[in-house]
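Sequence in, structure out.
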Amino acid sequence: MSLRQIVLDTETTGLSAEDGHRVIEIGCIEIVNRRLSGRTLHLYLNPERDIDAGALAVHGLTRERLQSEPRFADVAERILGFLEGAEVLIHNAPFDVGFLDAELARLRRPPFRTCVQGIVDTLAMARELHPGKRNSLDALCERYAVSNAHRKLHGALLDAELLADVYLSMTRGQDSLEIAIGDGATAGLALSGADWPPAGLRIVRAGPDELAEHAATLAAIGREAKGDALWIRLETPPPAVVAAGE
């Protein structure tokens, strides 16, 4: 069964849904089996209210700019249809979910959590992986070598795209590097060069994009560890030893 995830981000008129602030932009990026599918959803929304100066400074969206956009009520079915059956990934999920719950409550619909398969808070995940460190989206982009140089203002789709790359990098680790070949009796048995590859094993070589992504990940690990990643040290041949007199 395929794993379908949606990375979601919103922009709003202010910081508090309880004070009547509204969603004005929503961006969604689909991931299927840990690969970006290319499917997205991006909508601007008419909030039918003023936008706080602090929020305007963050995303640059004015009430005048949004006046001709649809209201949340007009596109609610489209949004929920795109998200149906997916696990939703959100950075600082309580903030966005609180706003989405408020929008749905205005339409007398059930809470957002009941409309999707599940919700993952990537901020909580990052704090668990990197305790005591900054875990904002910008900080994570720097930590995982995800370029955000084009991010001058916040934008729901742009931030969702960045978070998708960060999430895939942040969750790339494996529980184990051991590869069992055959049944339990032969698992862990070392294979000689003559025995490799085992019969029936299909070898898929990494392409240029995958090699570049691998190198970027190792560089990020190196920055985090303040030294070369173990993989790089293992791949680097030891210096030649020259005998005295040679």
